[in-house]
Amino acid sequence: MNKLIGFISLGCAKNRVNTEQMMFLLREAGYAVCGDTQGVDAVVLNTCGFVNSAKSEAIDTILELAELKKNGDFSKLIVAGCFPERCKDDILSKMPEIDAAVGTGSFDDIVSVVETLFKQGGGLSYFGDISAPVSETGRILSSSPVWAYLKIAEGCNNLCSYCCIPQIRGRYRSRKMENILDEARKLVSGGVQELIIVAQDTTMYGLDLYGELRLTALLRELGTIENLRWIRLHYLYPDDIDDELIDEIAKNDKIVKYLDIPFQHISDAVISAMNRRGTGDSYRELIKKLRKRLDNLVLRTSVITGLPGEGDKEFNELYDFLKETKIERIGVFPYSPEDGTPAAQMERPDENIANERSELIYQLGSEIMKNFSKSRIGETLTVLTEGFNDDNVVMARSFAETPDVDGYIAVIGSNIPINAFIDVRIAGMENGELIAEMS
């Protein structure tokens, strides 16, 4: 009987892709895989370790799984990804509950890890080259039959002072364009209708491989794939969004007019302390340009409060910027000093102040989003239906909602097709959720 391996994936979309690749490799080697911990022989936990809250989540999940293992639910616990990469020197000694630790440079070793575990026992560690070429392997989609993440690069070269990604994911490595397009065609031929483009910095795509930015060229080729309906862009670095890219977004009907641009801050002093390119004025001008050239644009951004260099003046500038630009989707995080990063040694606001400022931004973002939702009532939209909520109501997304982040639109009616594009009219809003009817 084939052994059954259960998978749990924490963290970002890029991590999800690695989880799906490990599932594929194990299935190809003859193992059965699932997204559960019931009735399995081993569990693979793919972790995030980007900030302290992610590390805490990883630790809590490991301890929960350790209890299940102790109770005999399964026999082997494998922990992979960013958390073990950050703690590779002592993770096995500090957490003996783990049978094998797999770093971000060793996802492709998962078959060897599992085989060795069942033959020889625990205490295994696999930490390969974190700057090796990006793995080109298949995936078992764990997201949806109709949408998938398409990772175009790995690692990061930006060296933001507060960020540990280069330390745990390596330098920026673009995938060859032909490999990306081949994967995209396979995904679409398998029923995927929406591709969500992800990398740590999608705008940098191609620079390391071709000597020039190639995101625009890639999007142009993706747009020619038959039966692909939506292309969604995440993690665009603001300084590299040029006129050529904006033109392609404007004229390519398959690219939804929803852009995820993590500005992080607007104060020049804080941007400089973060070691990020651009200025507050250049970010403001970019938003004006995008709003002017892209009709009905919806923006998502993430910002950090309590960064080094952020006093009351700098925070107020950030707050006013978000209030004035009315960015529709705002994610906010209090600064988390990370070991080994330059910012961890810099003077910064008290943690309580960072948390208070984060809450103020959260409240502002909620108000902006509520007003945006109200403005959509009466509109007719194309949405992608994805399933049912606990009340057996169909849940759907329009161009303005990205999966797992922005929530859903509840579609009222009977005989509504699932995993399909339909036209609906936004009829109202209840508890902050848009309600729609088939048009």
Account of the protein in words:
This protein is α/β, with parallel strands linked by helices and 439 residues long. The protein is built from 14 helices and 19 strands. The protein has helices at residues 13-28, 52-70, 82-86, 91-94, 110-120, 165-169, 177-189, 207-210, 215-222, 243-251, 268-273, 280-293, 312-325, 351-375, and strands at 4-9, 32-34, 42-47, 76-81, 100-102, 124-126, 147-151, 153-154, 173-174, 194-198, 230-233, 255-260, 298-305, 329-334, 380-388, 394-397, 409-412, 421-430, 433-438. The chain has a six-stranded parallel sheet, sandwiched between helices. Helix 10 links the parallel strand 11 (230-233) and strand 12. Helix 13 runs parallel beside helix 14.
Give a short overview.
The protein is an alpha/beta fold. The protein has helices spanning 13-28, 52-70, 82-86, 91-94, 110-120, 165-169, 177-189, 207-210, 215-222, 243-251, 268-273, 280-293, 312-325, 351-375; strands at residues 4-9, 32-34, 42-47, 76-81, 100-102, 124-126, 147-151, 153-154, 173-174, 194-198, 230-233, 255-260, 298-305, 329-334, 380-388, 394-397, 409-412, 421-430, 433-438. Strands 2-1-3-4-5-6 form a six-stranded parallel sheet, with helices on both faces. A six-stranded parallel sheet has the order 7-10-11-12-13-14. A five-stranded mixed barrel has the order 15-16-17-19-18.
